[in-house]
Request: fold
Amino acid sequence: MSKKVLMQGNAACVAGAIKAGMRFFAGYPITPSTEIAEMASLKLPTVGGHFIQMEDELASMAAIIGASCVGVKSMTATSGPGFSLKQENIGYACMAEIPCVIVNVQRSGPSTGLPTSPSQGDVMQSRWGTHGDHPMIVLSPSSVTETYYLTIRAFNLAEKYKTPVILLMDEIIGHLREGIEINDEDVQIIERNKLDLNENKKGYEVSGDELVPSKHLQGNMKYNITGLSHGFDGFPTNNNKVAGELHERLMKKIDENKDDIVTYQEYKTDDADTIVVCFGGSARIVATAVDMAREEGYKVGMFRAITIWPSPEEALRKLSERVKRIIVVEHNYGQYLLEVQRIVNNPNCKIDFLGKVDGTVIIPDEVLKVIKEVK
Amino acid sequence: MASKLIEKYFRYEHLPQIWCQGCGNGIILRDVVKAIDDLGLDVDKTVIVSGIGCSSRAAGYLNFLTLHTTHGRAVAFATGIKMARPELNVIVLAGDGDLSAIGGNHLIHAARRNINITVIAFNNNIYGMTGGQYSPTTPTGDYGTTAPYGNIDRPFDIALLAKGAGATYVAKGDCFHVVQTTKLIRDGIKHNGFSIIEVADVCPTYYGRKNKKGNAVDMMTYQKENMISAEAALAMSEEERKGKIIVGKICENDYPELTEEYQKIIDRVMVK
Reply:
């Protein structure tokens, strides 16, 4: 039976994580994500899991990778400045293919910025924050309820694709309290397959066009895990062929599974000639503005990216082929705007932008004003 | 004896190691493996973690679950492993730069928490992998490729740093006295709490060459002739200890171990 409760976004994240099987959390205090660490410290021992407050953000990221390597589903949470510090080991998790979940409750930056005003300024960092080419899955919830389910999905995707997954929240959702109704009946949890392996010496072995190494992190692991380019047994190599194949597989494992990974929401788009593109907390404002505009007779709809990386490229391109105008609304200086400009290939579709970087929240009237500014 | 250890614990197919001729890393790694063998540690329940640098390549040669992590972070990875799965034996292999410069914060906090992991500090007084830059343990006045006029930094004593941070088992060994060093590592692994064994390494290629210490044999002979026991070192002044190679236990004491304390919380609050 589902039960309606009042919950904060950050608390819903922890509830979802525990439901998904998280049994280890390492973190470092930073607003506006701290409630996630607090809640994890309270709840984890009650389910036999472990919490640790590490000495810094780098260590927290390192610790969750360590825990995941020995079979324990793990998560850390942070905000802007801490997210920058975690990038080093996020890259390691990409390269070594270690499932884990990193929550970034975004706040205004750069640097210490405006603690702790809302922002969505880490869109590009979430995709390209760590050095080198690497795959990345980034999910962004727009409500407390969705935070619960998307956290579970983040764990599932991490396990399925053996990769770190970023839950890109924002202060708007992290600190929002609203009634949520959890119904776990249809929730699927992906556990690590327990393959019968006596001595697993080649965890990174892939055969044919396999993109995710099925033996990795399975059974009695007797191989090396490294951030260096490596062969099937995880041992470092400078062999360019091996390195090239590894890097290509890492990118392809996400790129070629977009159909499975990518999710988005369309709202009142059927007859729309104008589409407002948004994600995360901004979507609540946009949805209200769309309703207001509709009352005034404007044919406007909303396209919300839920998986912001990889982006819902195909769906948005398709939509852009039949609308006159796209307005990108986000709490930054125009980061997802760049991705939308890359995707849209219709010269008759104009792209406009509404952003905010002063630490205040965009209000529906401001969105409405842009919608009505038909140039 | 050595060949049996290699057969039992090494990834034979990846030998020889990448290390220079005369490097002390192989000797220290042999001591670690001998200590593991003496204790009869279950290889299926032992994880070896290392960072980045010459000595951190050691992990990859061992036939365990081995994690070759990021620069300086080995102790933080190890903390996650031990915290999440306290039943595992966790051994960290790290160099002086890795452990006391970029990873200094992780070292002192793991020591403070008294988490039951064992750290072997390969101290060759130099950054070897990058070509001989001075490290936090390069003695004042010595030379490195980034200290062409002599090092003006004051060096860390890694063992005393760890002791000051609360490590409950601290020892120093060297490359020459393998029997003593192996025993110190053995006792460190056995110890229930944070243990660290700082081993004086030899790097003839960079530290030795830059500082006119002679070849590998000369550097090993120096360790042989200048070794003093930890007890003797205690009675000496800082000036008298200069240039001496200390071998022995610096401290060993009891303090509640972190994962056992956490288990008490689980036992208290877990919903059954």
Summary: The radius of gyration of chain B is 18 Å. The mean pLDDT of chain B is 97. The longest strand of chain B covers residues 245-252.
